[in-house]
Specification:
Helices cover 15% and strands 65% of the residues. By secondary structure, the chain is mainly beta. The N and C termini lie far apart (35 Å). About 5% of the residues have low confidence.
């Protein structure tokens, strides 16, 4: 699969995941994210959709992250659930987890290859009342080992 097709499929999947759940849950918030990952060592950017609470405070936050570097491009389709804990100042800390589909395009000189691998993510973060957040994500199976990112959610 070419990189252009991977990006298109990723964006389409994010929109589909968000829109399928929208009528049942209500409003959705959109956001952008960027950061760095370790193993593979990359910079990444992407976007997310966040639903209203599904159960108590549990929210669905599917996201797409596209990483570049280390002779590879990784398109991560993450179906993550987050649980925020509100703080007295209006900010919140959150924990979460969810499955991932990782489309990895390797570029090793004249030979290129693309693989699709399953993964799983565990995450925690701090979100300011205004919508900015910082997040630490630890990957399992075939997800990037560690990601540290920042983002913003429009509410």
């Amino acid at each position: 699969m070419s990189m252009k097709k991977s990006v298109f499929v990723s964006c389409a999947a994010l929109l589909l995941l968000g829109s399928l759940h929208a009528p049942a849950v209500g409003a959705q918030d959109l956001g952008l994210r960027f950061g760095v990952s370790i193993d593979p060592d990359q910079v990444y950017f992407g976007g997310h959709v966040e639903t209203d609470p599904l159960f108590e405070e549990l929210r669905f936050r599917p996201n797409v992250e596209i990483g570049f570097g280390n002779d590879a491009t990784v398109v991560a389709l993450n179906g993550e659930f987050v649980w925020p804990f509100d703080l007295q100042n209006g900010d919140s800390v959150y924990v979460g987890m969810g499955p991932a589909i990782n489309i990895i395009s390797f570029d090793a000189g004249p030979v290129s290859d693309t693989e699709v691998r399953a993964g799983f993510n565990f995450l925690m973060g701090y979100e300011f009342e205004e919508g900015f957040h910082a997040e630490l994500k630890v990957g399992a199976i075939d997800s990037p080992e560690v990601k540290f990112g920042f983002g913003y959610t429009w509410r």
